[in-house]
């Protein structure tokens, strides 16, 4: 199965890259763009066949390495 | 004081650190590759130098924090051993949890390579004894991710317990919370800081502003 781990900076944590992207979009004429937040998506191919186990394992990986929970939150989605 | 300098792939400041240690300690530091699982016997001080370990993949310091040697470094710290992390070394020790908080992308998004001024917050530690309390000194910095951040409770605790080691005293260029440039562990035996005192330890380098750090350790 595949696990998709989405990692975002927590609310309140300054996201200078998101801000820069927002400014660039405004400069391109996309006036409708307000706040922009940037994160990461990590796809994991897992040998696990049980969705619940796969989710649990991916969450453990996110806590231990993929995300720094001091500043980041994550969510795990199991597909396929 | 016997020092061991850790080497991770992508670290590039180890020679500066070797020079600073050799000059102040009067003995050669051991160089320890990150795949080692034990520190050399008799190691008093572990130094994590600056650079871009593992290409800063995932987050600065995140991969190096998982290297085999870091288990030995954690045990060393738990035994009360001394640890110094500079720049990427600071990022690595925050990722291992030896120090709280995290170093985010500089608030202005620019890589900052210039001198900064630091204020010594306390001089009753093994790292800062050779400075006067409140002294200001010049230190080169070279980082893209030096924006120190932690939650408000952690910041209050650091301040309340006197664990802020150095603050930016001229301009807080990278956006660090409360102008924090370096912090101590609660037992004052682990120090992490972003700027590079090891790059100003000889008149030939343009100054000796950073030398008191190494002279303090040598006298411990």
TL;DR?
The complex is a heterodimer of chains A (80) and B (220). Chain A is α+β, with helices and mostly antiparallel strands. Chain A has helices at 16-27, 51-66, and strands at 2-9, 39-45, 72-79.
Describe the model.
The complex is a heterodimer of chains A (80) and B (220). By secondary structure, chain A is of the alpha+beta class. Chain A has one domain: Mth169, Chain: A. Helix content of chain A is 35%, strand content 29%. The longest helix of chain A has 16 residues. The radius of gyration of chain A is 16 Å and the shape is elongated. Chain B has a single domain, classed as Rossmann fold (3-Layer(aba) Sandwich), CATH 3.40.50.880. Chain B has five helices and eleven strands. In chain B, strands 2-1-3-4-11-10-9-6-7 form a nine-stranded mixed sheet, sandwiched between helices. In chain B, helix 2 links the parallel strand 3 and strand 4. In chain B, helix 1 packs across helix 5. The termini of chain B are close together. The model of chain B has no long low-confidence stretch (mean pLDDT 97).
Task: Output the keywords.
heterodimer, A: about 80 residues, alpha+beta, Mth169, Chain: A, 3-stranded antiparallel β-sheet, 3 strands, about 35% helix, elongated, B: about 220 residues, alpha/beta, Rossmann fold, 9-stranded mixed β-sheet, two-stranded antiparallel sheet, 5 helices, about 25% strand, globular
Which helices and strands occur, and which strands form pairs?
The complex is a heterodimer of chains A (80) and B (220).
Chain A: E1 2-9, H1 16-27, E2 39-45, H2 51-66, E3 72-79
Antiparallel strand pairs in A: 1-2, 1-3
Chain B: E1 3-7, H1 14-25, E2 30-33, E3 45-48, H2 69-78, E4 82-86, H3 88-96, E5 102-104, E6 112-120, E7 136-143, E8 147-149, H4 152-160, E9 164-168, E10 180-184, E11 190-193, H5 211-219
Parallel strand pairs in B: 1-2, 1-3, 3-4, 4-11
Antiparallel strand pairs in B: 5-8, 6-7, 6-9, 9-10, 10-11
Helix pairs in contact in B: 1-5
């Amino acid at each position: 199965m595949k696990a998709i781990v989405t990692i975002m900076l927590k609310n309140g944590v300054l996201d200078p890259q998101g801000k820069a992207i927002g400014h660039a979009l405004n400069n391109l004429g996309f006036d409708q763009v307000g706040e922009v937040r940037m994160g990461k998506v990590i796809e994991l191919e897992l040998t696990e066949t049980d969705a619940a186990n796969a989710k649990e394992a991916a969450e453990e990986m996110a806590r231990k390495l993929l995300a720094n929970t001091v500043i980041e939150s994550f969510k795990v989605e199991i597909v396929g | 004081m016997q020092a061991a300098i850790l080497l991770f792939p992508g670290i590039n400041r180890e020679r500066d650190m070797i020079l600073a240690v050799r000059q102040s300690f009067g003995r050669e530091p051991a160089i320890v590759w990150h795949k080692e699982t034990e520190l050399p016997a008799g190691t008093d001080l572990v130094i994590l130098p600056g650079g871009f370990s593992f290409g800063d993949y995932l987050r600065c310091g995140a991969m190096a924090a998982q290297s085999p040697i870091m288990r030995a470094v954690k045990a060393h710290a738990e035994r009360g051993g001394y640890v110094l992390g500079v720049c990427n070394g600071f990022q690595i020790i925050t990722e291992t949890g030896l120090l709280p908080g995290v170093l985010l992308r500089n608030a202005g998004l620019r890589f900052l390579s210039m001198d900064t001024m630091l204020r010594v917050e306390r001089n009753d530690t093994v790292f800062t004894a050779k400075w006067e309390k409140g002294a200001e000194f010049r230190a080169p910095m070279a980082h893209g991710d030096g924006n120190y951040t932690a939650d408000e409770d952690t910041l209050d605790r650091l301040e309340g317990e006197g664990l802020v080691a150095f603050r930016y005293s001229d301009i807080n260029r990278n956006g660090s919370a409360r102008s924090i440039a370096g912090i101590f562990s609660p037992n004052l035996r682990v120090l992490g800081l972003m700027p590079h005192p090891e790059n100003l330890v000889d008149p030939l380098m343009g100054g000796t502003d950073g030398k008191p750090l190494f002279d303090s350790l040598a006298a411990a």
